[in-house]
Amino acid sequence: MTTPPSGWTDELARVRLHVVTGKGGTGKTTGAAALAVALAHGGRRVLLVEVEGRQGLAQLFGRSPLPYAEEHLTRVPGGGEVRALAVDAEAALLEYLSMFYNLGFAGRTLRKMGAIEFATTLAPGLRDVLLTGKVKECVTRTDSRGRHAYDAVVLDAPPTGRVAKFLDVTRAMADLAKVGPIRDQSEGVVRLLHSGETAVHLVALLEELPVQETLEAVDELDAADLRPGAVLVNRVRPVRLPAGEVDTAARGAVDAEHVVSGLRNAGLDPAPAVVTGLVDQTVEHALRVRSERAAMTQLAAAGLPVLELPDRPDGIDAGVVHELAELLIEQGVR
């Protein structure tokens, strides 16, 4: 089996915008939240941003829906803090009109008229420009002494199927808008997203479709000159067989007498049906392990660092997110 690179590289340690994507259902919001908490350890200040309107972060942390405002989400050991922001395209456009055209009141009037929805429908790329533009503002914002407001920003981005288009749409908008604030805003977003300050991490499961979509997303990111970061393999399940016995068991060659002997040594006297069930479960487990090993070999072909998050069958909440963050730190996230 090909072994993928592991751990957090020095290049990733210098990234300030961590974009997290993944096929739907892989747990990308959980991955983004765990990464944000890990990055906040040691007294750092991290902003966790979502842009899809699902309020996944609020559900994950058991709190009320996030507004279009940066609010405290959780504290971490060492004095660090994670704040959260749900970016809404309409609110971002109102903010944009107020900042660059002094149209705060007029913008609110336009919203009542439905003009904002009309504008984002007329130019579909405008919605993504507004969302990424707000993220860029959070990444680059500084205080009066020139210090960044946040040490890192983590973006819970759209799924892998459209993440490259979402991140690269600002290049097209920059070409359309030849002068003025729209051009300047678009160019600033392009510079950030295509720089070494940004990395796109991919959350995957060790299953055929998520692995295939992850590899396709890496190719799309490379083609768009966007920088793939690490692969977060989620819901990794433990292997309960010695390494040398997996292939044998997967072929169905499980010694039932050996199973019976082991149970009797433990003081048990299993019925034949129980032994048959245990043998079947062993074969099923071995087949799953072999399949997951093959999936990991496929992921290794991308040449990206791989971090693992264990399966949590009892569900995910804020406490589990903190536990997953600790595991990421053990794998080098800093």
UniProtKB/TrEMBL annotation:
The secretion signal range is: none
Listed SUPFAM superfamilies: P-loop containing nucleoside triphosphate hydrolases (SSF52540)
Superkingdom assignment: Bacteria
Q: Which residues form the ArsA/GET3 Anion-transporting ATPase-like domain?
A: 17-176
The UniProt entry, under Gene3D superfamilies, shows: P-loop containing nucleotide triphosphate hydrolases (3.40.50.300)
UniProt cross-references to Pfam families, sorted A to Z: ArsA_ATPase
PANTHER family in the cross-refs: ARSENICAL PUMP-DRIVING ATPASE ARSENITE-TRANSLOCATING ATPASE (PTHR10803), ATPASE RV3679-RELATED (PTHR10803:SF31)
Indicate what this protein is called per its UniProt record.
Answer: Anion-transporting ATPase, ArsA/GET3 family
